[in-house]
Amino acid sequence: MAIEIIRVAWRSLRSNKLRSFLTMLGIIIGVMAVILSSAIGLGTKNGVTKSVESLGSNVLTVMRGSAQSRGISQGVGSATTMTADDVQQILDQDPDVAYASPVVTTNAQVVYGSNNTNTSIVGTNDSYAAIRNVTMQQGRYLMAQDVMTASHVAVLGSSVAQTLFGGRNPVGETILIQSIPFEVIGVAAPQGASGLASADDMINIPYTTEMSLLTGNNRISQIVASAKSPDVMYRAQLEIESTLRVAHQLKAGMADDFNILNQTTVLNTLGNITQMLTILLDGISAISLLVGGIGIMNIMLVSVTERTREIGIRKAIGAKKGVILFQFLLESLTLSVAGALLGVAIGGIGALVAGRLMNSGNLFSPVAAGLGVVFSVVIGIVFGVYPARKAANLKPIDALRFE
Amino acid sequence: MSLIEIRDLVREYVIGGQVIRALNGVNLTIERGEFVAIMGPSGSGKSTMMNMIGCLDVPTSGRYVLDGYDVSALSEDQLAELRNQKIGFVFQNFNLLLRMTALENVELPMLYAGVPPRERRDRAMEALERVGLKDRMHNRPNELSGGQQQRVSIARALVNHPVLLLADEPTGALDSRTTEDILGLFEELHEQGNTIVLVTHEPDVGQRAKRIVRFRDGRVEADEWMGADLGTAEDGAAAEETAAGTAEADAPRTGREVARRGD
Ligand SMILES: Nc1ncnc2c1ncn2[C@@H]1O[C@H](COP(=O)(O)OP(=O)(O)O)[C@@H](O)[C@H]1O
Ligand SMILES: [Mg+2]
């Protein structure tokens, strides 16, 4: 008999195709949202982790802080106190720091032949490659010798190399940075897409050269340093802080005129943000599923009223309560399960597309899909019970009299 | 034991605080094999009586025993089973399921009886053949004429071999020629031994039955036997007496008449 009841339920749904589909839509969107939210959450997390890690793990970045001028803050980056000498002191005094490099950044027009581009010129030293995980695609990186002699040499980021040279080998060629000729000594391997400013769209030159030819002063915009291991990140951060306070002659009670950015902290913060994003999306999916369930209940109630006479006939010729209950419950269950499966299909495709767009492999989560389906089944039952009971409890005589 | 025994049956409806007695102390006994017409003016309680006999509704008070089952003692599901096993319904407006073919409609009572699919199909086809509709079994109700639809519903009523065939105004929605067809079918079924109770307000339909029970104001007003094979004079007297006399006198007399009719 169960098979017949399933057929009856199926037939009644099919005879109202459009309505059945619209009823399922809430569940379809809900399940789709569950899958997509987990895909987007996972994709964002992957992307953030990857881009942060591509900039080097264990990295501490010291930025210029705000200068205190008679107790009035001048804003972030307004202090001009960091010099290459600070870097040397950190290296000399701080036992948990492995490498430290000064960074001087400016934007400049770069020309090769008839090609030109505007990119950021990052002046630094030879340690930078170790801190930022720069590997070479062609040629070599900066060496201590280049920095000492302030030579006119440049290491191109991969996308800059592509822009200026196309497929050709740039090593040994001469480019013009603000009309000053530089010899290209190497091209860095791509560091991968990152959500932040691309590490591939820049040129490294010795910071000494950049100071004398491009910025015209001896101030540096950043110090990047790496701790000896992830475990000593925080200790390294404290050491750097106290070294710089002494170097900058800050008295007790005065605020730091620099900020230290800890990679782990950044990673955790971003992790928290993506997690909040995922929770938000999950909440929206849950609400959507709930609304879908209410939609099912609504339509099933309409259906019970419309089919009162049918119920009366069935009861008159011998259908027991349980049979009617089962029939209507099965209809709402079919609606929710079919909706859930369609939602999984559409959500799966969406996750695939998201994976492509976010450059992030497989983002389809079977767990999310399974959860979505299970939740839909529960909703189908919960919201189907009331209409089904209403149908089952109809008195045959009242149901037959219904017009 | 009679097939139907009804004693002091009362059915009240309460509408807006007002009590309406649709049945006001009915006594009625019907034996196996009878062909009874229930007649009476509109509002006299015929349909209410049919619903009682068909176990679609339960009395406010009084006793109804169908084939040995005291109906007032049964649960809703037990009533459903009783309807399924003992009673075949024929309605004025056919009450077929519109989304199903004739064959599937006829299969339905057997579905609820738990008959296996193959047997269900065979028996449904047999029943449709019996009412002369074998060639239309894959048609849906809206592809059939009124008379054909009523034949389908008669096939559906017969398919579980009920002890009682109940028809409420079965020809009410049919033209006179089709009415003749359907009444012929009822007579045929009666001759084959089926018990038939038929509600009608049309005198020429009622004349086809072997016994007419007349209702007025929720009571049995008269109980008459028809046909030349019966002692008409005595029947007439009995009917008059029933009409005039108390309800209690109704039952034993009916029983005696039926017993007499048997020999
Ligand atoms: N469901 C109901 N609710 C209220 N009153 C009803 C209901 N069914 C029947 N009645 C009343 O009971 C009386 C008998 O009705 P019914 O049995 O349908 O008569 P008939 O079939 O002989 O025309 C009428 O007065 C009718 O209005
Ligand atoms: Mg009526």
Automatic annotation (TrEMBL), chain A:
The chain crosses the membrane at residues 21-42, 276-302, 323-351, 363-386. PANTHER family: ABC TRANSPORTER PERMEASE YTRF, MEMBRANE COMPONENT OF TRANSPORTER-RELATED. It holds the Pfam family MacB_PCD. It is found in: Cell membrane. This is Putative ABC transport system permease protein. Keywords: Cell membrane, Membrane, Transmembrane, Transmembrane helix. Belongs to the ABC-4 integral membrane protein family. InterPro entries: ABC3_permease_C, MacB_PCD, Macrolide_Exporter_MacB. One of its GO terms (cellular component) is plasma membrane. The keyword Cell membrane applies. It is a multi-pass membrane protein.
Automatic annotation (TrEMBL), chain B:
It comes from the Bacteria. Coiled coil: none annotated. This is Putative ABC transport system ATP-binding protein. Keywords: ATP-binding, Nucleotide-binding, Transport. One of its GO terms (cellular component) is plasma membrane. Residues 232-263 are annotated as: Disordered. Transmembrane segments: none annotated.
